[in-house]
Amino acid sequence: MATIQHKPTPTAPSTTTGGGLRAMDLYEKLEKVGEGTYGKVYKAREKATGLIVALKKTRLPEDDEGVPPTALREVSLLRMLSQDPHVVRLLDLKQGVNKEGQTILYLVFEYMDTDLKKFIRGYRANHEKIPAQTVKILMYQLCKGVAFVHGRGVLHRDLKPHNLLMDRKTMALKIADLGLSRAITVPMKKYTHEILTLWYRAPEVLLGATHYSTPVDIWSVGCIFAELVTNQPLFPGDSELQQLLHIFKLLGTPNEQMWPGVGKLPNWHVYPQWKPTKLSTLVPGLDADGYDLLEKMLAYEPAKRVSAKKALEHPYFNGVNKEPESLGSSSTCFIKLHSMALKHKMPVLIKANNSLICYFIFVRFQNYCMMIERYVAGLRRCMALPSAFRMTSLSDYERPSAVSVQITCSVESLREAGQQDGWLY
Protein backbone atom coordinates (compact mmCIF):
# COMPACT_ATOMS: atom_id res chain seq x y z
CA MET A 1 0.00 0.00 0.00
CA ALA A 2 1.34 3.41 -0.95
CA THR A 3 2.10 5.76 1.91
CA ILE A 4 2.10 9.53 1.78
CA GLN A 5 4.88 10.96 3.89
CA HIS A 6 5.04 14.48 5.26
CA LYS A 7 8.25 16.17 6.22
CA PRO A 8 8.44 17.81 9.67
CA THR A 9 6.13 20.81 9.74
CA PRO A 10 7.55 23.97 11.31
CA THR A 11 5.64 26.11 13.76
CA ALA A 12 2.88 28.52 12.84
CA PRO A 13 3.73 32.00 11.55
CA SER A 14 4.49 34.74 13.99
CA THR A 15 4.08 37.40 11.29
CA THR A 16 6.33 39.90 13.00
CA THR A 17 8.21 42.72 11.33
CA GLY A 18 11.59 41.98 12.80
CA GLY A 19 11.65 44.38 15.75
CA GLY A 20 14.86 46.38 15.98
CA LEU A 21 16.80 44.02 13.72
CA ARG A 22 16.91 44.28 9.95
CA ALA A 23 15.13 41.33 8.36
CA MET A 24 18.29 40.01 6.74
CA ASP A 25 20.18 40.11 10.05
CA LEU A 26 17.98 37.16 10.98
CA TYR A 27 18.62 35.06 7.85
CA GLU A 28 21.57 33.97 5.75
CA LYS A 29 20.82 33.71 2.04
CA LEU A 30 22.18 30.47 0.58
CA GLU A 31 21.07 30.56 -3.05
CA LYS A 32 18.40 31.91 -5.36
CA VAL A 33 15.89 29.17 -6.17
CA GLY A 34 13.31 31.05 -8.19
CA GLU A 35 12.16 34.31 -9.68
CA GLY A 36 8.68 35.37 -10.71
CA THR A 37 6.54 38.36 -11.53
CA TYR A 38 6.26 39.42 -7.92
CA GLY A 39 9.81 38.88 -6.67
CA LYS A 40 12.72 36.53 -6.08
CA VAL A 41 12.79 33.41 -3.91
CA TYR A 42 15.88 32.40 -1.93
CA LYS A 43 16.89 29.35 0.02
CA ALA A 44 18.05 30.71 3.39
CA ARG A 45 19.04 29.69 6.89
CA GLU A 46 17.57 31.23 10.03
CA LYS A 47 20.66 32.27 12.00
CA ALA A 48 19.12 31.66 15.41
CA THR A 49 17.96 28.10 14.84
CA GLY A 50 19.67 26.82 11.69
CA LEU A 51 16.24 26.16 10.18
CA ILE A 52 16.31 26.13 6.36
CA VAL A 53 13.55 28.32 4.92
CA ALA A 54 12.45 29.89 1.64
CA LEU A 55 12.46 33.70 1.50
CA LYS A 56 10.11 35.29 -1.01
CA LYS A 57 11.29 38.84 -1.59
CA THR A 58 8.79 41.49 -2.73
CA ARG A 59 9.85 45.07 -3.38
CA LEU A 60 7.32 47.58 -2.04
CA PRO A 61 6.48 50.52 -4.34
CA GLU A 62 7.85 53.90 -3.30
CA ASP A 63 4.48 55.64 -3.47
CA ASP A 64 1.24 55.93 -1.56
CA GLU A 65 -0.19 52.64 -2.79
CA GLY A 66 1.45 50.62 -0.01
CA VAL A 67 1.95 46.85 -0.12
CA PRO A 68 1.07 45.30 -3.52
CA PRO A 69 -2.41 43.71 -3.47
CA THR A 70 -0.99 40.38 -4.63
CA ALA A 71 1.31 40.24 -1.60
CA LEU A 72 -1.47 41.27 0.78
CA ARG A 73 -3.77 38.67 -0.71
CA GLU A 74 -1.17 35.92 -0.51
CA VAL A 75 -0.35 36.71 3.13
CA SER A 76 -3.98 36.87 4.24
CA LEU A 77 -4.88 33.63 2.48
CA LEU A 78 -1.78 31.80 3.68
CA ARG A 79 -2.55 32.76 7.26
CA MET A 80 -5.88 31.04 6.81
CA LEU A 81 -4.78 28.06 4.69
CA SER A 82 -1.24 27.15 5.71
CA GLN A 83 -2.31 24.98 8.63
CA ASP A 84 -3.11 22.25 6.10
CA PRO A 85 -0.22 19.83 5.34
CA HIS A 86 -0.89 20.18 1.60
CA VAL A 87 -0.50 23.98 1.52
CA VAL A 88 2.96 25.53 1.84
CA ARG A 89 3.43 26.93 5.33
CA LEU A 90 4.00 30.63 5.95
CA LEU A 91 6.36 30.87 8.92
CA ASP A 92 6.89 34.58 9.25
CA LEU A 93 6.62 37.98 7.64
CA LYS A 94 9.52 40.44 7.73
CA GLN A 95 10.01 43.95 6.43
CA GLY A 96 13.46 45.25 5.62
CA VAL A 97 15.44 47.76 3.56
CA ASN A 98 17.90 46.87 0.80
CA LYS A 99 21.21 48.58 -0.01
CA GLU A 100 19.43 51.14 -2.19
CA GLY A 101 17.16 52.12 0.68
CA GLN A 102 14.08 50.52 -0.86
CA THR A 103 11.55 48.84 1.40
CA ILE A 104 11.43 45.06 0.98
CA LEU A 105 8.81 42.62 2.22
CA TYR A 106 10.03 39.09 2.97
CA LEU A 107 7.61 36.18 3.20
CA VAL A 108 9.28 33.35 5.10
CA PHE A 109 8.08 29.89 4.03
CA GLU A 110 9.00 26.35 4.93
CA TYR A 111 11.60 25.11 2.45
CA MET A 112 10.72 22.51 -0.18
CA ASP A 113 13.60 21.31 -2.34
CA THR A 114 11.84 21.10 -5.71
CA ASP A 115 8.57 21.63 -7.54
CA LEU A 116 6.41 19.43 -9.73
CA LYS A 117 7.60 21.09 -12.93
CA LYS A 118 11.23 20.19 -12.19
CA PHE A 119 10.17 16.73 -11.02
CA ILE A 120 8.42 16.01 -14.33
CA ARG A 121 11.28 17.55 -16.32
CA GLY A 122 13.74 15.17 -14.65
CA TYR A 123 11.82 12.12 -15.79
CA ARG A 124 11.36 13.57 -19.28
CA ALA A 125 15.10 14.26 -19.60
CA ASN A 126 15.84 10.63 -18.72
CA HIS A 127 13.16 9.36 -21.12
CA GLU A 128 11.39 7.66 -18.22
CA LYS A 129 7.78 7.59 -17.11
CA ILE A 130 6.80 8.54 -13.58
CA PRO A 131 5.74 5.30 -11.82
CA ALA A 132 1.97 4.87 -11.78
CA GLN A 133 1.85 4.61 -7.99
CA THR A 134 3.86 7.83 -7.64
CA VAL A 135 1.39 9.60 -9.93
CA LYS A 136 -1.43 8.32 -7.76
CA ILE A 137 0.21 9.52 -4.53
CA LEU A 138 0.94 12.98 -5.96
CA MET A 139 -2.56 13.34 -7.39
CA TYR A 140 -4.15 12.33 -4.10
CA GLN A 141 -2.19 15.01 -2.27
CA LEU A 142 -3.07 17.59 -4.91
CA CYS A 143 -6.78 16.77 -4.69
CA LYS A 144 -6.56 16.81 -0.90
CA GLY A 145 -4.98 20.27 -0.92
CA VAL A 146 -7.43 21.65 -3.48
CA ALA A 147 -10.35 20.23 -1.49
CA PHE A 148 -9.05 22.02 1.60
CA VAL A 149 -8.58 25.33 -0.24
CA HIS A 150 -12.03 25.12 -1.84
CA GLY A 151 -13.53 24.09 1.48
CA ARG A 152 -12.25 27.35 2.96
CA GLY A 153 -13.98 29.31 0.21
CA VAL A 154 -10.93 30.10 -1.93
CA LEU A 155 -10.17 29.69 -5.64
CA HIS A 156 -6.48 29.25 -6.40
CA ARG A 157 -6.79 30.29 -10.09
CA ASP A 158 -3.18 29.49 -10.99
CA LEU A 159 -2.63 25.78 -10.39
CA LYS A 160 0.27 24.49 -12.47
CA PRO A 161 3.28 22.22 -11.86
CA HIS A 162 5.55 25.18 -11.07
CA ASN A 163 3.25 26.23 -8.20
CA LEU A 164 3.20 22.78 -6.59
CA LEU A 165 6.20 22.39 -4.28
CA MET A 166 7.66 19.00 -3.40
CA ASP A 167 10.03 17.21 -1.07
CA ARG A 168 12.10 14.76 -3.12
CA LYS A 169 12.62 12.28 -0.28
CA THR A 170 9.11 12.05 1.12
CA MET A 171 7.15 12.84 -2.08
CA ALA A 172 5.16 15.38 -0.07
CA LEU A 173 3.38 17.86 -2.35
CA LYS A 174 2.14 21.31 -1.31
CA ILE A 175 0.16 24.03 -3.03
CA ALA A 176 1.97 27.37 -3.26
CA ASP A 177 1.74 30.82 -4.86
CA LEU A 178 -1.65 32.13 -3.80
CA GLY A 179 -1.08 35.59 -5.29
CA LEU A 180 -3.90 35.19 -7.83
CA SER A 181 -6.33 33.48 -5.47
CA ARG A 182 -9.77 34.88 -4.72
CA ALA A 183 -12.44 34.23 -2.13
CA ILE A 184 -15.57 32.50 -3.43
CA THR A 185 -18.64 34.69 -3.03
CA VAL A 186 -22.39 34.10 -3.20
CA PRO A 187 -23.82 35.39 -5.44
CA MET A 188 -20.89 34.66 -7.72
CA LYS A 189 -18.62 37.66 -8.11
CA LYS A 190 -17.41 38.92 -11.47
CA TYR A 191 -13.72 38.10 -11.99
CA THR A 192 -11.20 38.94 -14.67
CA HIS A 193 -10.66 36.23 -17.27
CA GLU A 194 -6.93 37.04 -17.41
CA ILE A 195 -5.94 34.33 -14.95
CA LEU A 196 -4.06 31.08 -14.97
CA THR A 197 -1.07 30.08 -17.03
CA LEU A 198 -2.41 29.46 -20.53
CA TRP A 199 -1.82 25.70 -20.71
CA TYR A 200 -3.90 25.03 -17.59
CA ARG A 201 -6.67 27.56 -18.25
CA ALA A 202 -10.24 26.27 -18.29
CA PRO A 203 -12.24 26.66 -21.54
CA GLU A 204 -14.91 28.85 -19.91
CA VAL A 205 -12.19 31.35 -18.96
CA LEU A 206 -10.68 31.23 -22.44
CA LEU A 207 -14.15 31.93 -23.84
CA GLY A 208 -14.40 35.10 -21.76
CA ALA A 209 -16.46 33.99 -18.76
CA THR A 210 -16.11 36.35 -15.82
CA HIS A 211 -18.40 34.45 -13.45
CA TYR A 212 -16.72 31.19 -12.53
CA SER A 213 -15.95 29.08 -9.51
CA THR A 214 -14.03 26.02 -8.29
CA PRO A 215 -14.32 24.04 -11.57
CA VAL A 216 -11.60 26.28 -13.09
CA ASP A 217 -9.15 24.77 -10.59
CA ILE A 218 -10.38 21.24 -11.31
CA TRP A 219 -9.66 21.70 -15.02
CA SER A 220 -6.10 22.69 -14.09
CA VAL A 221 -5.82 19.59 -11.87
CA GLY A 222 -6.92 17.44 -14.82
CA CYS A 223 -4.26 18.99 -17.06
CA ILE A 224 -1.62 18.34 -14.38
CA PHE A 225 -2.87 14.74 -14.04
CA ALA A 226 -2.34 14.12 -17.75
CA GLU A 227 1.09 15.74 -17.65
CA LEU A 228 2.19 13.49 -14.77
CA VAL A 229 1.29 10.44 -16.85
CA THR A 230 2.85 11.52 -20.17
CA ASN A 231 5.61 13.96 -19.03
CA GLN A 232 4.18 16.43 -21.56
CA PRO A 233 1.63 19.25 -21.22
CA LEU A 234 -1.75 18.19 -22.59
CA PHE A 235 -2.73 21.52 -24.16
CA PRO A 236 0.42 23.57 -24.94
CA GLY A 237 -1.14 26.56 -26.74
CA ASP A 238 0.73 29.72 -27.75
CA SER A 239 -2.23 32.12 -27.51
CA GLU A 240 -5.78 32.11 -26.18
CA LEU A 241 -7.17 31.22 -29.61
CA GLN A 242 -4.55 28.51 -30.18
CA GLN A 243 -5.24 27.17 -26.71
CA LEU A 244 -8.97 26.89 -27.43
CA LEU A 245 -8.38 25.24 -30.79
CA HIS A 246 -5.94 22.79 -29.21
CA ILE A 247 -8.53 21.78 -26.61
CA PHE A 248 -11.32 21.50 -29.20
CA LYS A 249 -9.16 19.44 -31.54
CA LEU A 250 -8.37 16.89 -28.83
CA LEU A 251 -11.61 16.81 -26.82
CA GLY A 252 -13.99 17.69 -29.65
CA THR A 253 -15.66 21.02 -30.39
CA PRO A 254 -18.29 21.71 -27.72
CA ASN A 255 -21.92 22.39 -28.56
CA GLU A 256 -25.11 23.30 -26.70
CA GLN A 257 -25.91 19.63 -26.08
CA MET A 258 -22.68 18.87 -24.23
CA TRP A 259 -22.29 22.36 -22.72
CA PRO A 260 -25.54 24.35 -22.40
CA GLY A 261 -24.91 28.09 -22.74
CA VAL A 262 -21.50 27.83 -24.38
CA GLY A 263 -22.70 29.81 -27.41
CA LYS A 264 -23.53 32.81 -25.20
CA LEU A 265 -20.02 33.23 -23.82
CA PRO A 266 -18.31 36.47 -24.97
CA ASN A 267 -15.52 34.88 -27.01
CA TRP A 268 -17.63 32.20 -28.68
CA HIS A 269 -17.44 32.12 -32.46
CA VAL A 270 -17.99 29.55 -35.16
CA TYR A 271 -15.14 27.09 -34.70
CA PRO A 272 -14.03 24.10 -36.78
CA GLN A 273 -15.97 20.97 -35.84
CA TRP A 274 -13.70 18.28 -34.43
CA LYS A 275 -14.68 14.93 -32.98
CA PRO A 276 -13.24 13.94 -29.60
CA THR A 277 -10.16 11.72 -29.39
CA LYS A 278 -10.19 8.91 -26.85
CA LEU A 279 -8.37 9.78 -23.65
CA SER A 280 -6.53 6.47 -23.87
CA THR A 281 -4.96 7.78 -27.08
CA LEU A 282 -4.17 11.22 -25.66
CA VAL A 283 -2.89 9.98 -22.30
CA PRO A 284 -1.60 6.41 -22.66
CA GLY A 285 -0.67 4.60 -19.47
CA LEU A 286 -3.67 4.98 -17.16
CA ASP A 287 -6.03 2.26 -16.00
CA ALA A 288 -9.82 2.43 -16.45
CA ASP A 289 -10.34 4.23 -13.13
CA GLY A 290 -7.69 6.78 -14.04
CA TYR A 291 -9.35 7.56 -17.37
CA ASP A 292 -12.72 7.88 -15.66
CA LEU A 293 -11.36 10.39 -13.14
CA LEU A 294 -9.51 12.36 -15.82
CA GLU A 295 -12.66 12.52 -17.95
CA LYS A 296 -14.62 13.89 -14.99
CA MET A 297 -11.97 16.57 -14.42
CA LEU A 298 -11.89 17.64 -18.07
CA ALA A 299 -15.66 17.84 -18.60
CA TYR A 300 -16.55 20.85 -20.76
CA GLU A 301 -19.55 21.92 -18.68
CA PRO A 302 -18.12 23.34 -15.43
CA ALA A 303 -21.03 22.10 -13.33
CA LYS A 304 -20.31 18.51 -14.42
CA ARG A 305 -16.67 18.51 -13.37
CA VAL A 306 -15.94 16.41 -10.32
CA SER A 307 -15.20 18.37 -7.14
CA ALA A 308 -11.87 17.87 -5.41
CA LYS A 309 -13.67 16.40 -2.41
CA LYS A 310 -15.51 13.86 -4.58
CA ALA A 311 -12.32 13.06 -6.47
CA LEU A 312 -10.74 11.85 -3.22
CA GLU A 313 -13.42 9.15 -3.02
CA HIS A 314 -12.81 7.93 -6.59
CA PRO A 315 -11.76 4.27 -7.04
CA TYR A 316 -8.59 5.47 -8.78
CA PHE A 317 -7.18 6.23 -5.34
CA ASN A 318 -7.84 2.77 -3.95
CA GLY A 319 -4.51 1.50 -2.62
CA VAL A 320 -3.33 4.90 -1.41
CA ASN A 321 -3.00 4.99 2.37
CA LYS A 322 -5.48 7.72 3.27
CA GLU A 323 -5.08 7.41 7.02
CA PRO A 324 -2.45 9.24 9.12
CA GLU A 325 0.79 7.29 9.14
CA SER A 326 1.21 4.91 12.05
CA LEU A 327 3.76 5.48 14.81
CA GLY A 328 7.04 4.04 13.64
CA SER A 329 6.88 5.33 10.07
CA SER A 330 6.45 9.02 9.23
CA SER A 331 3.77 10.37 11.49
CA THR A 332 2.68 12.98 13.99
CA CYS A 333 1.99 12.44 17.66
CA PHE A 334 1.67 14.85 20.57
CA ILE A 335 3.30 15.27 23.93
CA LYS A 336 1.90 16.93 27.03
CA LEU A 337 3.99 19.74 28.43
CA HIS A 338 3.95 19.87 32.21
CA SER A 339 5.84 23.17 32.42
CA MET A 340 3.58 26.13 33.18
CA ALA A 341 5.63 28.16 30.72
CA LEU A 342 4.84 25.79 27.84
CA LYS A 343 1.31 24.56 28.39
CA HIS A 344 0.37 24.23 24.73
CA LYS A 345 0.66 20.94 22.86
CA MET A 346 3.74 20.46 20.75
CA PRO A 347 3.99 18.28 17.64
CA VAL A 348 6.69 15.62 17.60
CA LEU A 349 7.42 14.79 14.00
CA ILE A 350 8.86 11.39 13.40
CA LYS A 351 11.06 10.39 10.50
CA ALA A 352 12.10 6.78 10.06
CA ASN A 353 15.83 6.06 9.79
CA ASN A 354 16.35 2.29 9.65
CA SER A 355 15.79 1.06 13.22
CA LEU A 356 16.11 4.56 14.69
CA ILE A 357 13.70 7.46 14.70
CA CYS A 358 14.70 11.11 14.61
CA TYR A 359 12.38 13.43 16.45
CA PHE A 360 12.50 17.03 15.32
CA ILE A 361 10.79 19.30 17.80
CA PHE A 362 10.24 22.92 16.85
CA VAL A 363 9.56 24.80 20.06
CA ARG A 364 7.89 28.21 20.08
CA PHE A 365 7.84 30.11 23.34
CA GLN A 366 7.10 33.60 24.64
CA ASN A 367 9.38 34.09 27.64
CA TYR A 368 13.09 33.53 28.22
CA CYS A 369 15.35 30.68 27.16
CA MET A 370 15.45 29.22 30.66
CA MET A 371 11.90 28.01 30.03
CA ILE A 372 13.22 25.88 27.20
CA GLU A 373 15.88 24.56 29.54
CA ARG A 374 13.14 23.49 31.95
CA TYR A 375 11.36 21.69 29.15
CA VAL A 376 14.58 20.02 28.03
CA ALA A 377 15.27 18.81 31.58
CA GLY A 378 11.81 17.27 31.75
CA LEU A 379 12.24 15.65 28.37
CA ARG A 380 15.58 14.17 29.43
CA ARG A 381 13.99 12.68 32.53
CA CYS A 382 11.05 11.06 30.79
CA MET A 383 13.13 9.81 27.85
CA ALA A 384 16.10 8.73 30.02
CA LEU A 385 18.36 9.38 27.04
CA PRO A 386 20.75 12.19 28.00
CA SER A 387 23.54 10.93 25.77
CA ALA A 388 21.36 11.02 22.67
CA PHE A 389 20.30 14.60 23.19
CA ARG A 390 21.43 17.46 20.95
CA MET A 391 20.09 21.00 21.05
CA THR A 392 20.79 24.20 19.15
CA SER A 393 22.98 26.54 21.21
CA LEU A 394 21.12 29.34 22.96
CA SER A 395 24.20 31.48 23.63
CA ASP A 396 23.96 33.69 20.56
CA TYR A 397 20.51 35.09 21.18
CA GLU A 398 18.17 35.85 24.01
CA ARG A 399 14.65 35.23 22.75
CA PRO A 400 14.53 33.28 19.47
CA SER A 401 11.17 32.55 17.89
CA ALA A 402 11.98 28.86 17.64
CA VAL A 403 14.62 26.34 18.62
CA SER A 404 15.10 22.91 17.10
CA VAL A 405 15.71 19.84 19.24
CA GLN A 406 16.72 16.45 17.84
CA ILE A 407 16.55 13.22 19.81
CA THR A 408 17.40 9.81 18.41
CA CYS A 409 16.09 6.63 19.99
CA SER A 410 14.21 3.48 19.09
CA VAL A 411 10.48 3.48 18.46
CA GLU A 412 10.04 1.06 21.35
CA SER A 413 11.86 3.36 23.78
CA LEU A 414 9.68 6.29 22.83
CA ARG A 415 6.48 4.30 23.09
CA GLU A 416 7.39 2.87 26.50
CA ALA A 417 8.51 6.24 27.88
CA GLY A 418 5.43 7.98 26.59
CA GLN A 419 3.02 5.43 28.00
CA GLN A 420 4.73 5.35 31.39
CA ASP A 421 4.91 9.11 31.83
CA GLY A 422 1.59 9.92 30.19
CA TRP A 423 2.86 12.44 27.65
CA LEU A 424 2.31 10.36 24.51
CA TYR A 425 -1.27 9.83 23.40
TrEMBL record:
Q: Where is the signal peptide?
A: none
Quote the InterPro entries the UniProt record gives.
CDK (IPR050108), Kinase-like_dom_sf (IPR011009), Prot_kinase_dom (IPR000719), Protein_kinase_ATP_BS (IPR017441), Ser/Thr_kinase_AS (IPR008271)
- Residue numbers binding ATP: 56
Q: Which family does it belong to?
A: Belongs to the protein kinase superfamily. CMGC Ser/Thr protein kinase family. CDC2/CDKX subfamily.
Per the record, the GO terms for biological process are: G1/S transition of mitotic cell cycle; regulation of G2/M transition of mitotic cell cycle; signal transduction
Reactions catalysed according to its record:
L-seryl-[protein] + ATP = O-phospho-L-seryl-[protein] + ADP + H(+); L-threonyl-[protein] + ATP = O-phospho-L-threonyl-[protein] + ADP + H(+); [DNA-directed RNA polymerase] + ATP = phospho-[DNA-directed RNA polymerase] + ADP + H(+)
Per its record, what are the GO molecular function terms? ATP binding; cyclin binding; cyclin-dependent protein serine/threonine kinase activity; RNA polymerase II CTD heptapeptide repeat kinase activity
Recorded protein name is Protein kinase domain-containing protein
Domain Protein kinase intervals:
27-317
Q: A GO CC term? A: nucleus
Annotated PROSITE patterns: PROTEIN_KINASE_ATP, PROTEIN_KINASE_DOM, PROTEIN_KINASE_ST
Q: Which Pfam families match?
A: Pkinase
Mind telling me which residue stretches traverse the membrane in this protein?
none
Which keywords does this Swiss-Prot/TrEMBL entry list? ATP-binding, Kinase, Nucleotide-binding, Phosphoprotein, Serine/threonine-protein kinase, Transferase
Ranges for region Disordered: 1-20
What taxonomic lineage is listed for the species of origin?
Answer: Eukaryota, Viridiplantae, Streptophyta, Embryophyta, Tracheophyta
Which PANTHER family is this protein grouped with?
Answer: CELL DIVISION PROTEIN KINASE (PTHR24056), CYCLIN-DEPENDENT KINASE B2-2 (PTHR24056:SF178)
